[in-house]
Specification:
CATH class of the largest domain: Alpha Beta
Bound molecules: 2-acetamido-2-deoxy-beta-D-glucopyranose, zinc ion
Oligomer: single chain
Number of helices: 21
Structural class: alpha/beta
Strand content: 5-15%
InterPro entries: Alkaline_phosphatase, Alkaline_phosphatase_AS, Alkaline_phosphatase_core_sf
Radius of gyration: 26 Å
Family: Belongs to the alkaline phosphatase family.
Shape: globular
Number of domains: 3
Distance between the termini: 51 Å
EC number: 3.1.3.1
Membrane topology: Single-pass membrane protein
Cofactor: Mg(2+); Zn(2+)
Strand order of the largest sheet: 5-6-4-3-7-1-8-11-2-12
Length: 549
Amino acid sequence: MAKRSENSPLLGGDSLIYNSKPKSNVRKNISYILNVVTLITIAVLLFHHPSKPETPQVKPHGKKNIIMMVTDGMGPASLSAARSFRQLRDKLPIDDTLVIDKYLIGSSRTRSSSSLITDSAAGATAFACGLKSYNGAIGVDPDKTPCGTILEALKLQGYMTGLVVTTRITDATPAAFSAHVDYRFQEDLIAQHQLGEYPLGRVVDLILGGGRCHFVPASNGGCRADGRDLVKEAVKNGWSYAGDRSQFDQLHGGENVSLPLLGLLANHDIPYDIDRQSEEFPSLAEQVKVALTALEEATKDSDQGFFLLIEGSRIDHAGHHNDPAAQVREVLAYDNAFKEVIDFIESTDVETVAISTSDHETGGLVTARQVSESYPDYLWYPQVLLNSTHSGEYLTRKIYTQKVKSGTKFADFIKQEILEKDMGITDYTEDEVKQIALKSSQPDALLYFLNNMISYRAQIGWTTHGHSAVDVNIYAHTNSPALLHKLKSRTAYDGLTGNHENIEIGAFMETITGSNLNKVTEMIRKMTHSPRDKSDLSTDEYHANVDYL
Ligand SMILES: *[C@@H]1O[C@H](CO)[C@@H](O)[C@H](O)[C@H]1NC(C)=O
Ligand SMILES: *[C@@H]1O[C@H](CO)[C@@H](O)[C@H](O)[C@H]1NC(C)=O
Ligand SMILES: [Zn+2]
């Protein structure tokens, strides 16, 4: 076998030294002259006793826009998968990256106060309040005392505020910035807080996402237990409302928005990007565009800018489902939204910073899987994800609601319609077809089975249907030299370069805006925020509501 050459590119930096040519005489002379010039320069500088170059200082109360972006459940492997998938799909070179890859600055440790593995509620409370709380906590500390959030603090300072998500707006991440309840499943109450029904009054100016369910009574297609119609009440109280794609389109990319705006574009989640019908649901990037345009316009004559939370919510769901075909498209949809934010930052004169990170990883995803007894080949197959044109969630519903559920007609439906057409799998076995038929009335089992067919063939591995404790990436961009300088500090509780606790992201936003979250906490700590205690719930109800997402 040939010995690996000393200047193999695999050896990285060493090969550069190995390859460098001896300096020529001309170069020697140039470097002599340069050295003399350097010495003279140093002497002159010493003579003048110059002060150090000025480091730009952050003006905490100056006008700023703060954009907090959360990729729920996106770990480092999600990026590797999405990047390779996109290179294959768009025939791009191997050094092509996602937009977000160019803005990597560090990583975040994610544990909560109650567990080494956090949930999204504790994860978002860490960003919003800058403190560790227990899994399930929405804007409350470990003693269940409400904690002031960065969104509330900035609203009180005169910022405009917004929340943009692809899941229910009452779900954990947006809730932790805009509500205070003991457990994330109290979504009826979260909806009330988000519309201003609590001591601070209304603090959110713009809402875009799914989750109409918890705003509308059961009698009207929603799921509120108290019979109230919060959408009707909101409109009466001066909110403008967008409840579907056509009303969203009337917002004209944010140029025809009257704030406050309540945009509830789906009853529950907005469909996965892989399933999304664009005539029915906007993309995350389109929602972000509306929010940025509307908030910029609303603050153009103000001394203060805006705070906007953006969440790529369903990367997490694809992780829970162990659905790699859906997940890579969710990551790419987020990357498009991220690009909207970068373009905005480049276009505005207002000091703006965007920080993008995950609350945790979901699924224990790895872009490798041993599928043989023998030592594995170093391969995984993005082609399999490209062939699959729907999520496991969509296909499960399609099979579950199929009228004919046995016999050759059903088997043909599974083979031709589901496996060949929707999933692009041609090498299925008769046993797999039988398994799908057997599971056709058990949605969870069917979902996992279908997604595993894809994962196995792609040689992608998952270690859990829940979350994991792996560190997640931090990305950032700003148009402000002072904020850039601050971001770049590696010191704990100062900058965000390098490895940090998740609560430092909250602390960072607090510092650069000169806000005081403790003061906000004083204003809300006495509010009754929890109609029900954990002890009122049956064990099943507790687990069903608290442990899942
Ligand atoms: C602007 O929004 C209003 C509702 O707030 C709507 O009636 C109007 O048609 C919209 N304008 C355009 C040009 O779509
Ligand atoms: C993708 O689908 C095509 C046609 O349906 C099929 O020939 C091919 O083998 C599939 N590729 C993979 C990796 O499954
Ligand atoms: Zn989750």
